[in-house]
Specification:
Strand order of the largest sheet: 1-2-4-5-6-3
Number of domains: 1
CATH class: Alpha Beta
Largest sheet: 6 strands, antiparallel
CATH topology: Thiol Ester Dehydrase, Chain A
Distance between the termini: 19 Å
Helix content: 10-25%
Length: 131
């Protein structure tokens, strides 16, 4: 089974991703793109995409990117910056790239953009290998 097949199976059984309407778009070694079509249940009370939806999406994309080496990881720490508001109807993409892979930790950076190419948020995550 290749990376794309493994990741597709992993995401298909990832209840949290499904519940939050996050889907896998692209997979390659050390890189994953996830997508979210921002609907009414993705919005905060002000009509913008909820920060928690963006953070959740980023965490899922980064965790999947870390996992492209076939091992299991959990989030150890993160730093996340909200830069621009998303709105209902946006298709939001989270592109996660592994920047450093160590023996027990993996450092991943992520950018979230809307369909107009605007940068909505950016962050970095450190994962701990549990295998």
């Amino acid at each position: 089974m290749g990376i794309a097949d493994d990741m597709a199976a992993y995401c298909a059984n990832h209840t949290f991703m499904k519940k939050n309407h996050i889907r896998l778009e692209e997979v390659e070694q050390d890189r994953v793109v996830t997508a979210l079509d921002a609907g009414p249940d993705s919005l905060n009370p002000y009509g913008f995409v909820h920060g928690g939806a963006l953070y959740t999406m980023a965490d899922c994309a980064c965790g999947a990117a870390a996992r492209t080496n076939g091992k299991k990881y959990v989030t150890l720490s993160s730093s996340f910056n909200f830069l621009h508001s998303g709105v209902e109807g946006d298709t939001i993409l989270a592109e996660a790239k592994v920047r450093r892979r160590g023996r027990t930790t993996c450092y991943v950076e992520v950018d979230l953009t809307n369909g107009r190419g605007e940068l909505l948020a950016s962050g970095n995550y450190t994962f701990f290998c549990i295998e």
